[in-house]
User: Which sequence fits this backbone?
């Protein structure tokens, strides 16, 4: 489908452009401003150029946090996307079951993120939590405050529990938008359930899946509240992800310059990888035209 | 179909389990909880809830959240719909770049925006108003709305637009009577996500409000820090932050489901 | 090649239908002979897509049986019925090439690859798709895509009937005739049973050997295009077929003469005799192209006012008033059109009589 060429379409974009640009420009300018200055106190600033950037980029602890972050986001995507699609495929198409499913899926998403952390603190404690007690009863010593592996497992579990419904809801909406005729034609062509999924459903879900992957990547890469409440970045540094490290620098050391530089670098990393994901997903399934 | 239902039931049970557990604990006193491990409250009590409700800021917290979340959802939808249509149907200068740029506004750590936003809204004397929070949330909700709606709109063949224009429809009439019903699923999803992301957002909501527009999650964290480690009270506070969102979704569930209804061609 | 029989079919989309109004299809009882090209013609909502889906097995009828060559298939799913269906908009597997699209139905049935190859090449040749075989199906024009949809039906050697649900809806008007001709070619070449649903009478009449006209869930008439044109059994058929449709004038019968208001129109003797025995409200029917229009008074001519003249290129449409009723006449392009007044004559051999909407004719 060729798009119509028309620059007057800008009028349709204008409201969105104004709202977003207005909200984004000022903070951006502020951050860039701070990132190249050393601020001793109100009114006392010195231009330091790229000094903060160099410091930030050579910070070993930042590298560690970065790797942890990539591992975390990678695991999260690998689990949430297929699981979310699977559940969406199984959901009913009509009847009262649809609303029940939708409401149940919505529940974890509607919980404020600090409360999520609280829920899972309680849930995994061996003395007062169901999961903690259950694991304990198998004789397994599980303590996310002491063992890094346990902390990671709990975090991943919490994250998957929290956000898979988002993928499911998007995938479900995408599936519902496929006209019945495609399924009818597939039936007539004798396609198996897997062939129907691979050649009709998955390609037609490309749009929603792109959004799901990008959203989950961005949000998991920027994650702060849930892990902070659950582990505080510990034990030690084992679950200190980028956001947590950033806040530690900015708040703990109250150094706006490096924090601003860090924020910019952080932003650029997310930007780069989101763009890569986006390009990859746009080009999947498209090939040469003849 | 049986296997399908079984898998769904297991998954939903797992989703609800932690929430049930909170409910369980919220109905027991702290002593009760620490005393004996129990799957259901043997002596259920509402004392935790009563203790919280004597602090009346809870009630107003709910209302505040509902207000700014609703404002935000409406603004996001209304501005995103024409924009998404433009991205879907038209080719214009900078279109691909603007489209991706929109999403980049969700790629920065939120902390970056706090101070600038505070200064910005102070200047316009909008601190502690619902509109301030609603507008602040537009930063991340509007791009999302545009992206989701564009995806669904692109699934509708352009022949439908062309036929309508040939038949003499004006753009508004075509959009409202013909086009919107076709992208119902998309509008439903978008509205839900705008609601959801605005509802759970804490940083801006706390920073930009003081008393009049304070949301409940902020109130809850106050309760939490004040109570220390009273598990029952903590659980009750947690449940109370979930309840209003759950209620809203419950009441609009049929609209949501219809929004997801099969688009027959 | 299959004979398709619909035995006492009725269908309702509601679980417990109470009366006829709840039925999308009221009573369909018909046999389509092997190898014919048939059209299901009717306005939107008359039930033709429902009927088509019952034939193909995408829908199970609430009542009645479907039989192919005498075998009951009512409960069989579509993939077991040896039919193919082409939908209103092109339904393709976007990620595959044209070749793979055509090969898909065969590969699903585990046919050997060399046979798949020969069938695909054969069908691509019939449909003029051979140069496009290596291209991605998603990038082609709408008419090429519909050809691919059709091709997926033709590749299967076991296909006995192909069903079409308004397949030319999204095709550019100037490409429609090309596809229609292609369908006719295929029909002649492969002798498959083709059933074609449409609301466009021109499509139906040019495509089909026999047309089944449907209205509100019932079969109104089945016949060749000529039969439907010359002898519509029902005023609906007269009105729906032909452009413009048949003229109808309420009348009474006095002897051999039909009286429309103050005007007398002489009828054919036999028709008049049957008309006198018929029950119900009487209407006179005549096709616009058979209505004679003269510039001056002639024997048997009735004076009328000319209200409007439309030039349609190869023919002209005159709108006239007769006794307060609007009547249309269709003249060839070269015939002179009178200015203001004209005299029309109803040739008795072309003038029909309808009682209660039904054609008055000899029984049997």
Assistant:
């Amino acid at each position: 489908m060729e798009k119509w060429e028309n620059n007057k379409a800008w009028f349709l974009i204008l409201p969105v452009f104004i709202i977003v640009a207005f909200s984004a420009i000022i903070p951006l300018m502020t951050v860039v401003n701070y990132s190249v200055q050393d601020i001793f106190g109100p009114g006392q600033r010195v231009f330091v150029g790229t000094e903060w950037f160099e410091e930030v980029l050579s910070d070993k602890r930042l590298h560690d946090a970065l790797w942890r972050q990539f591992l975390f986001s990678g695991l999260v995507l690998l689990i949430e996307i297929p699981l979310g699609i699977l559940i969406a495929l199984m959901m009913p198409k009509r009847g009262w079951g649809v609303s029940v499913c939708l409401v149940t899926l919505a529940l974890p998403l509607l919980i404020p993120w600090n409360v999520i952390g609280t829920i899972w603190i309680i849930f995994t404690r061996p003395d007062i939590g169901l999961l903690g007690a259950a694991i304990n009863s198998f004789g397994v010593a599980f303590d996310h405050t002491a063992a890094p592996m346990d902390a990671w497992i709990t975090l991943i579990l919490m994250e998957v529990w929290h956000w898979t419904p988002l993928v499911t809801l998007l995938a479900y909406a995408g599936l519902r938008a496929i006209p019945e005729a495609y399924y009818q034609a597939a039936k007539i062509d004798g396609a198996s359930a897997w062939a129907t999924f691979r050649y009709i459903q998955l390609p037609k879900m490309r749009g929603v899946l792109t959004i799901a992957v990008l959203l989950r990547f961005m949000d998991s890469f920027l994650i702060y509240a849930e892990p902070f409440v659950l582990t505080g970045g510990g034990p030690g540094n084992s679950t200190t992800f980028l956001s947590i490290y950033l806040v530690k620098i900015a708040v703990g050391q109250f150094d706006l310059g490096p924090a601003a530089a860090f924020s910019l670098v952080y932003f650029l990393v997310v930007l780069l990888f989101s763009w890569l994901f986006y390009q990859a997903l746009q080009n999947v399934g498209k090939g040469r035209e003849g | 179909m049986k296997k399908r239902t079984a898998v769904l039931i297991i998954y939903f049970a797992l989703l609800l389990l932690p929430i049930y557990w909170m409910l369980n604990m919220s109905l027991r006193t702290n002593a009760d909880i620490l005393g004996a491990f129990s799957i259901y409250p043997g002596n259920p009590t509402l004392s935790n809830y009563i203790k919280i409700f004597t602090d009346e800021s809870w009630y107003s917290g709910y209302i505040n959240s509902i207000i700014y979340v609703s404002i935000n959802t409406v603004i996001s939808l209304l501005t995103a719909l024409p924009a998404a249509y433009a991205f879907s149907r038209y080719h214009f200068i900078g279109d691909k770049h603007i489209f991706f740029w929109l999403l980049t506004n969700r790629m920065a750590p939120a902390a970056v925006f706090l101070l600038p936003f505070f200064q910005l809204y102070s200047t316009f004397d909008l601190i502690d108003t619902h509109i301030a929070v609603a507008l602040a949330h537009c930063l991340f909700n509007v791009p999302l709305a545009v992206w989701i709606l564009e995806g669904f709109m692109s699934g509708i063949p352009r022949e439908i637009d062309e036929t309508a224009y040939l038949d003499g429809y004006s753009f508004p009439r075509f959009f409202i009577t013909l086009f919107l019903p076709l992208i119902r699923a998309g509008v439903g999803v978008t509205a839900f996500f705008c609601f959801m992301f605005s509802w759970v957002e804490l940083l801006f909501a706390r920073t930009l409000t003081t008393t009049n527009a304070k949301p409940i999650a902020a109130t809850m964290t106050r309760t939490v820090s004040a109570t220390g480690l009273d598990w029952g009270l903590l659980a009750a506070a947690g449940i109370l932050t979930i309840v209003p969102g759950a209620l809203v979704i419950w009441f609009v569930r049929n609209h949501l489901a219809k929004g997801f209804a099969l688009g027959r061609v | 090649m299959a004979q398709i029989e619909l035995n006492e079919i009725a269908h309702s989309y509601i679980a417990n239908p109470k009366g006829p109004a709840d039925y999308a299809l009221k009573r369909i009882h018909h046999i389509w002979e092997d190898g014919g090209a048939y059209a299901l013609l009717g306005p939107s909502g008359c039930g033709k897509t429902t009927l088509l889906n019952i034939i193909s097995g995408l829908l199970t009828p609430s009542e009645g049986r479907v039989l192919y060559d005498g075998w009951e298939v009512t409960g069989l799913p579509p993939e077991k019925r040896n039919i193919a269906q082409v939908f209103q908009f092109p339904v393709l597997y976007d990620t595959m090439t044209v070749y793979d699209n055509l090969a898909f139905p065969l590969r699903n049935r585990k046919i050997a690859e060399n046979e798949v190859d020969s069938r695909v090449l054969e069908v691509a040749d019939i449909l003029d798709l051979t140069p496009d075989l290596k291209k991605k199906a998603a990038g082609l024009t709408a008419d090429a895509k519909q050809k691919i949809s059709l091709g997926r039906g033709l590749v299967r050697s076991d296909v006995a009937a192909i069903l079409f649900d308004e397949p030319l809806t999204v095709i550019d008007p100037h490409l429609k005739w090309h596809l229609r001709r292609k369908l006719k070619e295929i029909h002649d070449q492969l002798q498959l049973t083709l059933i074609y649903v449409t609301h466009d009478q021109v499509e139906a009449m040019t495509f089909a050997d026999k047309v089944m006209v449907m209205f509100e869930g019932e079969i109104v008439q089945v016949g060749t295009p000529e039969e439907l044109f010359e002898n519509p059994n029902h005023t609906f058929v007269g009105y729906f077929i032909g452009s413009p449709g048949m003229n109808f004038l309420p009348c009474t019968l006095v002897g051999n003469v039909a009286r429309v208001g103050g005007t007398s129109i002489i009828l054919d003797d036999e028709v008049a005799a049957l008309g006198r025995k018929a029950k119900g409200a009487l209407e006179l029917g005549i096709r616009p192209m058979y209505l004679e229009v003269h510039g001056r008074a002639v024997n048997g001519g009735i004076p009328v006012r000319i209200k409007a003249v439309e030039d349609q290129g190869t023919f002209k449409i005159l709108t006239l008033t007769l006794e307060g009723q609007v009547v249309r006449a269709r003249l060839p392009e070269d015939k002179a059109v009178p200015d203001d007044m004209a005299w029309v004559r109803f040739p008795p051999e072309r003038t029909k009589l309808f009682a209660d909407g039904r054609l008055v004719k000899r029984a049997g």
User: Anything to note?
Assistant: Chain C is about 25% helix and 35% strand. Residues 286 and 320 of chain C are 14 Å apart (CA to CA). Chain C has a mean pLDDT of 87.
